[in-house]
Amino acid sequence: MNKTSDYDLTVVVPVYNEEENMARIEKTFAEWMPRASRKVCVLFVNDGSKDGSLQHIKRICGNGGDFYYISFARNAGLSAAIKAGIDYTCSPLVGYIDADLQTTPEDFDLLLPYTDEYALVTGIRANRKDTVFKRFQSRFANGFRRMMTHDDATDTGCPLKVLHTDAAKRIPFFKGMHRFLPALIRLQEGADYKELPVRHFPRTAGVSKFSMWNRLTGPLADCFAYRWMKKRYINYDVAENDL
C-alpha cells in the first residue's frame, strides 16, 4: 500500500541539484510537521540530480519519520517532477513547495483551512526578496498569462500550493504546466482556486534553475498551448457503474 495514504497532506518537493539545501529542508520540515494543522508527509522527487542530492534524500528518508522519495532516471523538468509527485500521492491533499525554501512549509497552515471550499489554494509571494529584474520578469509573464487565460491569478509562480489530490490527478499535464494551475483547475466543472499572501525569503544556498529564457519565452509559448488545450478539454460525470 502507498504509504502516503496514511496522511492528510503529502508535500511534494522537487529536487534538482540542491545538495546544499538538503540539511535545511530536513530541519525545517522536521520542526514543522509535528505541529502542523494536518498529518503531513514529504515526498521528495529527485529530478535526475547530478550532485549529491539523491544521497542526501536517501539519508533523510532512511532516518525514519515522515519522509519518502521517488527518483527519476534522468532530468525531466519541474512540471514532470510535480506530476510524478501527484501521481504517487494517495493522501486526500497534495501540496507543493520548492527545495530552495524561498517559501516556508509553515505557511501551508495558512492555506489548509480553505481546502474544504477550493480545489486549489495557492500563495501570493508578499514582499518578494528577489531582484528587481526578476520581479519585472514575473510581472510581465503573469500579465501576459492573465490576458491569454483569463484566470485572474496574481502570482502563479508562487511555489506554495495545496490541491485536492483527485482534482490534481485530473489536470492535463504538459511542460510548463506548473505556471497554469489556477487556469487548469477552473477547467474542471465546479472547481475553483483561492489565493492568499505567504512569506517569501531570499535563496540562501544553491542556484536558481531558471533563466530569463525559461521565465519569459517559455511561459509565453505555453500560453498558446493552454489556449489550444482548453478548447479540447474533456469533462464528464459518471452517473452509475457496476465495477
Sequence of secondary-structure elements: EHEHEHEHEHEHHEH
Calculate the terminal CA-CA distance, rounded to whole Å: 21 Å
Tally of structural domains: 1
CATH superfamily: Spore Coat Polysaccharide Biosynthesis Protein SpsA, Chain A
CATH fold-level label: Spore Coat Polysaccharide Biosynthesis Protein SpsA, Chain A
CA-atom Rg in angstroms: 17 Å
Q: Percentage of helical residues?
A: 25-40%
Which features characterize this protein?
single chain, 243 residues, alpha/beta, Spore Coat Polysaccharide Biosynthesis Protein SpsA, Chain A, seven-stranded mixed beta sheet, 8 helices, 7 strands, 34% helix, 17% strand, globular
What does this structure look like?
By secondary structure, this protein is an alpha/beta fold. The chain has one domain: Alpha-Beta Complex (Spore Coat Polysaccharide Biosynthesis Protein SpsA, Chain A). It is 34% helix and 17% strand. The protein has a 7-stranded mixed β-sheet, sandwiched between helices. Helix 5 (132-149) packs parallel to helix 8 (212-230).
Q: What secondary-structure arrangement, pairings included, does this model have?
A:
Layout: E1 9-15, H1 22-32, E2 40-46, H2 53-62, E3 67-71, H3 78-87, E4 93-97, H4 108-111, E5 120-125, H5 132-149, E6 160-164, H6 165-169, H7 181-186, E7 193-198, H8 212-230
Helix pairs in contact: 5-8
Give a short overview:
The chain has 243 residues and is an alpha/beta fold. The protein contains eight helices and seven strands. 34% of the residues lie in helices and 17% in strands.
